[in-house]
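Researcher: Here's my situation. A collaborator sent me these components and asked whether they could plausibly form a single complex. I don't have experimental data yet, so a predicted model of the whole assembly would be a useful starting point for our discussion.
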Amino acid sequence: MGPRFDLMKVALACLGSPVSEGRTQEILQLLDSIYRAESGRILATLIHLLGDFELAEDAMQDAFIAAAEQWQRDGVPQNPRAYLVSMGRFKAIDSLRRRARFDPFDERTAKQLEAQSGSIGVPEEACIEDERLRLIFTCCHPALAPEGRVALTLREVCGLATEEIARAFLISPATLAQRIVRAKARIRELRIPYEVPSPSELPLRLNTVLQVIYLVFNEGYYASCGVSVTRTDLAVEAIRLGKVLKHLMPEPEVAGLLGLMLLQNSRHTARTSSGGDLILLEDQDRSLWNRDEIVEGLSLVEQALTSRRFGPYTLQAAIAALHSEAPNAAATDWAQIAALYRVLARAAPSPIVDLNRAVAIAMHQGPEAGLLLIDALLARGELADYHLAHAARADLCRRLGKTAEALASYDKALTLTRQEPERRFLQNRMRELKN
Amino acid sequence: MKYVCLGYIEPGKFENMSETERNAMLDECFTYDDVLRENGYFTAGEALQSAGTAATLRWKHGKVSVTDGPYAETKEQLGGILVLEARDLNHAIQLISKHPGVKAGPWEIRPAADLTGMVRESEQRRAKAKRQTS
């Protein structure tokens, strides 16, 4: 993902330095690779040390620039990361001092930070990992608006720029910027502590984090609106975040979520035709599925299931695993899938889970059984505006030869979908039926 | 990325401050401008003379017509322009939020448009036209 590291700016800072150009290039490349690998951790550490997102961001940039100048002259230090954190802290204090004219609070903060220098020193490996965890939990705090959590996480944890995030969600940069401004303000207002939740709070808080990650993945994997079915970057970002979280917090549900995302993402290439059209699971060319992601995903699902402490994400992953393991659509174990949906409905009841279960039952027992369930669901009203419910109903009616009803349901689905490829798919189906 | 930041202020507000207030405001603003420069965020900037000194040109009935005064007939008028180099929109917002000028009136932040592609195509067209006429 595009780093926010401005190589140009650093290069300019090195202009006119007495060191050779080749050496400059070497250092810049090294810094670039350090940025890619470490910036997340460095930022998290600085946020903890400095207690402020924005101060930390500026401090990190300043640290990299200072490194570019100094390493050319004095050589690369033993522990580059420690250097950067240290330098970042130093630059922040410096900057606070300069700003202190506007805000006496800055002067006081600068003094406090300086006083800490003896006691804290530079955090070790394990502590740095904790930093990222603290950051993730803070950004996903339940007191923040849901869309604020997503925006803040993508910017502060994943390092995406405001414009990149806005583009991915198809909203204006200003709207997204405001979400981030509000989220940061709320953290300040409510004095949300920058910490990993206590064991008693952890399950709920972890769930909020998983929700954010999965929301990002879904937005990327199954774009809710716009001209393409998948917006790859977000899906990849979510998986990356999931891996970081799993590394920091090896809980079964984290493994489950990561497994789910990998298994779903493995089908990415097969889901759309070259023309950008939607290809249903049953029609996908399974040779296009990513084997590595499937292997990794299956292993994670197994890991999570064996723990016996799993939850809804692991169950969804188990369902995805059954699809991934089937060599072709006909070989799919629909009975198992339907059973898993029943368990899922108890663990995390939702009309959408019920819908998916109805579809699985239709595959296992025949369209009539499924149609009965879907009609009952629609009668309850919750799925009235959910386009996939009507599309599923239409499909079952189509299989039962109830053409008029199928057309009516496809039509209803059309009015509700906001995605171009989906629209085309539904229109095609209607055309086929009419002929 | 470049952001053009337009600072607006109600006409007369600045002039009607007491000398102490005005000097304090100027000192704060200039000091912050320096901070922006030192950190490499400041690309360009201009303070503007009052809106009354503006001239507005329009193309009317096949020729240029000049009127006294600014284009926008709004309560707040453009008082100054800052061009910033920032990491992204939120960074630009953060930088301007801390500008003492924000207390004086609204600021509009607009990302600069990258016309490199358009400029290149235009150059190609103009070069072609030149070759054809020579």
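Model: Some features of this prediction you could bring to your collaborator: The mean pLDDT of chain B is 93. The two ends of chain B are 40 Å apart (CA to CA).
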